[in-house]
Design a protein that fits this description.
Layout: E1 7-10, E2 13-17, E3 25-30, E4 36-39, H1 47-56, E5 64-68, H2 74-77, H3 80-87, E6 90-94, H4 98-103, H5 114-119, E7 134-136, E8 141-142, E9 148-152, E10 161-165, E11 170-172, H6 195-205, E12 212-214, H7 225-241
Parallel strand pairs: 4-5, 5-6, 6-7, 11-12
Antiparallel strand pairs: 1-2, 2-3, 3-4, 8-9, 9-10, 10-11
Length: about 240
């Protein structure tokens, strides 16, 4: 569990825990000129922690010039409207989910179970609508801290993306993979738009090259990160065949 407002993953790359137990994380990238890009915004309660983390790393809200969303769910977009008002940052999300960000409503799930229906009644499933300034595409390299590559990983949501920071070798999985309580897993199907695509996208992450893997749910893996991800996927595949 993190005890500081921000955890440095690599020079200029920070994880910001926004809930106890590292359950929901936001990330910050700081350029050499001081500009900051945030990845995700947490729940609607998260902006206070995010602003505190910015102060902790020596940045100001006015330094935030861009906010990228991995996908349009309330635990990632909940704080977006408030942070946009405070920072004036431009908002970017994959084109398939720009409409969701603008409406403040998440994409449909594949299996609308009773539990899923109950979840949708809780505060935080929706968010204050926000304008989108840029629609991201697969393979795009965003001009962030030397290059942040967009990896379209559909399944959890149609426009879900992972992000690979090429200079530092840090991969942000978004919700393609969780590392909750020290155990890697796929996201709950309760929240997934397409279960089969979710699994395929997780396996695609095992083929990328990276040194550190950061999770939006759970702490990062620093040592042999790619091997850890691939090991989890191998075990999952073996379990399915067994």
């Amino acid at each position: 569990m993190s005890r500081t407002p921000a955890v440095e993953l690599a020079p200029g790359v920070f994880r910001i825990p926004t809930t106890p137990g590292d359950y929901v994380n936001v990330f910050a990238f700081r350029d050499d000129d001081g500009q900051v890009t945030l990845v995700d915004c947490g729940y609607f309660t998260a902006p206070g922690r995010i602003l505190a983390a910015l102060r902790f790393i020596g940045s100001d809200p006015s330094d935030v010039t861009r906010i990228l969303l991995t996908h349009a769910h309330g635990d990632h977009a909940g704080g977006l409207a408030r942070l946009r008002r405070i920072t004036g940052a431009r908002i970017a999300v994959h084109g398939l989910e720009a409409g969701n960000v603008r409406s403040g409503r998440p994409p449909a799930v594949e299996r609308l179970t009773l539990f899923a229906r109950l979840v949708k009644l809780l505060p935080g499933d929706t968010w204050t609508p926000s304008e989108v300034d840029e629609e991201l595409t697969d393979g795009q390299v965003v001009d962030v801290a030397g290059g942040l590559r967009v990896v379209h990983t559909p399944g959890h949501t149609p426009g879900h993306v992972a992000l690979l920071h090429q200079p530092s070798g840090v991969l942000l999985t978004g919700d393609s993979l969780f590392n909750w309580r020290g155990r890697m897993s796929l996201p709950s199907l309760t929240y997934c738009a397409d279960a089969r695509l979710t699994e395929r996208s997780a396996y695609a992450l095992g083929e990328l090259e990276y040194d550190v893997v950061g999770f939006t749910h759970g702490p990062e893996i620093r040592e042999r990160a790619r091997e850890a991800v691939r090991g989890f996927l191998r075990e999952r595949g073996a379990g399915r065949r067994g």
